[in-house]
Amino acid sequence: MHARRLNELIADTAESLERKVERFVREGRKVHLSSSFQTQSVPLLHLMSTLSNANLVQVILIDTGFLFPETYLFAQQLKNRFGLRVREVRSNRDYSEQLGTDHRFKFASDIEACCKLNKVDPIEQFIETGDVWISGIRADQSKVRAQKETIETDDRGVIRYHPMLEWSGRDVHRYIAQHGLPKHPLEPLGYKSIGCLPCTRKWSALDLEDGQRGGRWEGSQKTECGLHTS
Questions:
Q1: Is 114 a catalytic residue?
Q2: In degrees, to the nearest 5, what angle opens at C-alpha 185 toward C-alphas 69 and 225?
Q3: Count of domains in the chain?
Q4: Which of 114, 115, 199, 225 is catalytic?
Q5: Residue 46: inside a domain, yes or no?
Q6: CA-CA distance, 149 to 230, in Å (whole number)?
Q7: How does residue 205 score in pLDDT terms, banded at 50, 70 and 90?
Q8: In 3-state terms, what secondary structure has residue 197?
Q9: In 170-183, which positions are buried (b, 16+ CB within 10 angstroms) versus exposed (e)?
Q10: Cα separation, 16 vs 18, whole angstroms
Q11: Which CATH number do you get for residue 30?
């Protein structure tokens, strides 16, 4: 029964992706897909690569400059395996400009400012009004994401498309197993949600309340970087 449900979910998601990307392009819109290149990113990237119009979608890696080395390697692995067009975007502020008066990086003194500077600002400067922004967020990942709709338009006039919204973490791992796809190399070491190195730690039982986002921004109430809160 689980396999049947998953196959139906896969078919529905693939059909929706194909149909919507075709429509967006016909409307003259540029279509982008942002990815954190974690294990949970794999199904959407793989599904997109199998579509007839996959070459019309620009995949974006937001390079904060603080990602794990394993994430860069995993991104390259998926790019080569799936034949993705990947564009890296990053802040126009170099490391020396990200130091506070106490000579500490923003991630150590103001994590909200750090996420805005290195994640939110770069992608908002890249994606323009009228463009389409596809992301693989799921409703089961956080309370914020559970309130999202499959199609939304943000304050800047960017169309936000969330094709994986109804998928679960279990669906993600079953899909990966079904297709023999790789996982992020840090996942077997205990990392469940992988972001920037300074703000990510191994998942533990203490993270049960944080669900799928456990292990991020330890010591704060923060659960979102800001990309999906506008």
A1: no
A2: 65
A3: 1
A4: 225
A5: yes
A6: 13
A7: very low
A8: helix
A9: ebbbbbbeeeebeb
A10: 6
A11: 3.40.50.620
